[in-house]
Design brief:
Elements: E1 4-8, E2 20-27, H1 30-42, E3 47-50, E4 56-58, E5 63-70, E6 75-80, E7 83-89, H2 94-103, E8 106-107, E9 128-129, E10 132-133, E11 138-145, E12 150-155, H3 167-171, E13 176-187, H4 196-204, H5 212-225, E14 248-249, H6 254-261, E15 268-270, E16 276-278, H7 280-286, E17 294-295, E18 298-301, E19 304-310, H8 316-334, E20 343-345
Parallel strand pairs: 2-5, 3-5, 4-20
Antiparallel strand pairs: 1-2, 6-7, 7-13, 8-13, 9-10, 11-12, 11-13, 14-16, 15-16, 17-18, 18-19
Helix pairs in contact: 4-5
The structure holds flavin-adenine dinucleotide.
Flavin-adenine dinucleotide is lined by residues 14, 49-56, 70, 90, 115-118, 120-122, 124-125, 127-129, 177-178, 228, 230, 239-241, 343.
């Protein structure tokens, strides 16, 4: 294996910032992933796994070690006992897989339409949108365990999925390279309509009993209106989507936040375990940052207060400084700490 050297990572990330990878290789098959792991290990270098770069902020100095870009392809579907088991290699583009499942009338992924990135990253943060999460359909994740070079498969429970989290993300970060993911889908299943926004969009389209394709089209339209699909002509295109997770607070803390909010309309979603999820976008706006607010070459998306956007000349350091300002103001105003959603390479997590 002969990796490339000093490859600019900004070109591989939707945020478009960040310095070079000291070493860089593209893996088109599983043997190449293993070879990359062995190469890095024999030189005692860290291994970084790159998918579509849509949830990543790379430091301006770049990253030491080897970056392996996942380019494994292949999709296989098996229908048995009234379900479909759809297995996709980690390098398959996610939205194309969703489109394919919707076209074939397989329910389970339709609300996750329009999300950038590759299949292999979907279990990492339990990708979710509009009331659906991949944890509802993932039945197996095949991985390379970088500690011993062996391939293993995890079942759904072993993945320890939670809100924007999993074993792979916070449990044992960096240990596993996802090679393929299997989703269990429902042939001719009814679409999920769990969000008021989706319902409204369906009504606007005059759809009374929606198909999977109607829900996909509605979700993509809503996402587009919020600059939440990748569109090269969109002024908000350089982002990681939502920059912060919706904060989850203990139920006992809600009264104090409500008191500070002084607005009965503050969005809140009680969770089955007694905790309460709040809207990060609402908190950011009420802390004084309106969509489109800028701070030098970075700012908030003009269409969504939760997306931090990079403009010409932006560096990773600018993004981090801005994220810290948002966090500080929200904490000062509401006593709630916002946690960032993207992964940070070579830099301190804000
Ligand atoms: C406009 C926009 C909208 C978005 N909307 C949503 C949304 O609605 N919901 C949502 O959940 N996310 C959303 N995201 C975030 C992002 O698209 C997802 O998290 C996506 O799954 C990241 O995929 P990726 O291939 O680009 O991962 P990358 O950004 O390349 O990597 C992200 C992390 O996963 C790791 N990783 C990637 N592939 C592998 C692999 N094969 N094995 C091991 N580790 C791996 C990387 O090391 C890194 O830590 C959005 C992003 C953008 C830009």
């Amino acid at each position: 294996m002969t990796p490339l050297e000093y490859v600019r990572l900004a070109a591989h990330c939707t945020m478009g910032v960040g310095g070079p990878a000291r070493f860089f290789v593209e893996a088109r098959d599983e043997a190449a992933v293993l070879a990359a792991r062995d190469w890095a290990r024999s030189r005692q270098l860290p291994l970084h796994v790159l998918g579509g770069g849509s949830n990543l902020v790379v430091a301006d100095d770049g990253v030491a070690g080897l970056v392996v870009k996942i380019a494994l392809r292949g999709v296989d579907a098996r229908e048995a006992s009234g379900v479909v088991e759809l297995t996709a290699a980690a390098g398959e583009p996610w939205d194309a897989l969703v489109a394919q499942s919707v076209e074939r009338s397989w329910a389970g992924l339709e609300c996750l339409s329009g999300i950038p990135g590759l299949v292999g990253a979907t279990p990492m943060q339990n990708v979710g949108a509009y009331g659906q999460e991949v944890s509802e359909t993932v039945i197996a994740v095949r991985v390379l365990d970088t500690t011993n070079g062996r391939t293993v498969a995890f079942g759904n429970r072993e993945c320890r999925f939670a809100y924007r989290d999993s074993l792979f993300r916070s449990g044992e970060p960096g240990r596993y390279v996802v090679l393929s993911v299997t989703y269990r889908l429902q042939p001719k299943g009814a679409p999920s309509v769990r969000y008021a926004d989706v319902e409204k969009e369906l009504v606007r389209r005059g759809v009374a009993s929606p198909s999977l394709a109607d829900v996909r089209a509605s979700v993509v339209a809503i996402r587009r209106s919020k600059s939440m699909v990748l569109d090269p002509s969109d002024e908000n295109r350089r982002s990681c989507g939502s920059f912060f997770m919706n904060p989850i607070i203990p139920g006992a803390d809600l009264a104090a936040v409500e008191q500070r909010a002084v607005d009965p309309a503050m969005p809140r979603w009680p969770l089955p375990d007694g905790r309460v999820k709040l809207s990060a976008a609402w908190l950011i706006e009420r802390a004084g940052f309106t969509p489109g607010a800028t701070d030098g070459p970075v700012g908030l998306s003009t269409r969504h207060a939760l997306a931090v956007v990079a403009h010409d000349g932006a560096r990773a350091a600018d993004i981090i400084a801005f994220a810290r300002r948002l966090q500080a103001r929200v904490e000062e105003r509401f006593g709630v700490r916002l946690s960032p959603e993207p992964v940070f390479w070579g830099t301190v997590v804000p």
